[in-house]
Every structure is written in C-alpha cells, then in structure tokens.
Amino acid sequence: MTRVLAAGAAIVDDDGRVLLVQRGHDPEKGHWSVPGGHVEDGESFAEAARREVWEETGLHVDIGDELWTVEVPYGEYGLFEIHDFAAVVVGGTLRAGDDADDVRWVDDAELDALPLTKGLATCLRRAGVMG
C-alpha cells in the first residue's frame, strides 16, 4: 500500500472557531477538514502545513506544535499519514483557493452538523481545539 505523507493546520480565531475547508477533490470530496495536503519533496511537515494553508485559504500562518498524527486508509489512494499542527493567522485575506471548494470559520455547535473528513471531530476535541 502506498504511504502518502500529508500535513495540515488547525487554526482557531479569537471567537473559538476553527477554520475548515470543503475539499474540492477526492478523497472525501465535499467533506470539510482543516486546511492541508501532500508534503512535497524536501519539505518538512510544518513547511507543508504552512504552504497548504496559504494555497487553500489565502492566509499566512505561523505554525506551532504538532497536535496529532493519524493514519487514514483511503482505498485506491493508499494510506495517508497526516500530521496536523496548531497555527495562528499572521496575514492574508480569507478566500477559497487551490483545491478547496469553500472555506469558513466553524464553531463547536456547527462542527457536528457538517460532513467532516474521517475522524476530524475526534481529533479536534481530543487536542482541545474544539469543545
């Protein structure tokens, strides 16, 4: 099985909302997740998370501590090893870009009403990012 390295960022605003993107491509097209994607050759996980946030949301972030790592099998796509970090917005203008169909701030009550990527709500809550 192919192992795909990926990284993302959990970004929380002053109102306690987390920034989510609606995936524009498979796997899990249409589902909501923290911004993130593939690690490119020569990138660290943190560098990939920073780049992916910019590409998907138009925001510049400072990357903090790694919050969690998960392995998620996605059938024909292989096994994704995803490293997600805490991040803080330091600039930019929020917009859906790259492979994101939409982007928005979500509070804890809205979290369970959205179709989320596998295991995301559990990771956010276990890491203390939400609720």
Automatic annotation (TrEMBL):
<dbReference type="InterPro" id="IPR000086">
    <property type="entry name" value="NUDIX_hydrolase_dom"/>
</dbReference>
<dbReference type="GO" id="GO:0016740">
    <property type="term" value="F:transferase activity"/>
</dbReference>
<keyword id="KW-0436">Ligase</keyword>
<comment type="similarity">
    <text>Belongs to the Nudix hydrolase family.</text>
</comment>
<keyword id="KW-0808">Transferase</keyword>
<dbReference type="InterPro" id="IPR015797">
    <property type="entry name" value="NUDIX_hydrolase-like_dom_sf"/>
</dbReference>
<dbReference type="GO" id="GO:0003989">
    <property type="term" value="F:acetyl-CoA carboxylase activity"/>
</dbReference>
<dbReference type="GO" id="GO:0016787">
    <property type="term" value="F:hydrolase activity"/>
</dbReference>
<dbReference type="InterPro" id="IPR020084">
    <property type="entry name" value="NUDIX_hydrolase_CS"/>
</dbReference>
<feature type="domain" description="Nudix hydrolase">
    <location>
        <begin position="2"/>
        <end position="129"/>
    </location>
</feature>
<protein>
    <submittedName>
        <fullName>Acetyl-CoA carboxylase carboxyl transferase subunit beta</fullName>
        <ecNumber>6.4.1.2</ecNumber>
    </submittedName>
</protein>
<dbReference type="InterPro" id="IPR020476">
    <property type="entry name" value="Nudix_hydrolase"/>
</dbReference>
<keyword id="KW-0378">Hydrolase</keyword>
<dbReference type="Pfam" id="PF00293">
    <property type="entry name" value="NUDIX"/>
</dbReference>
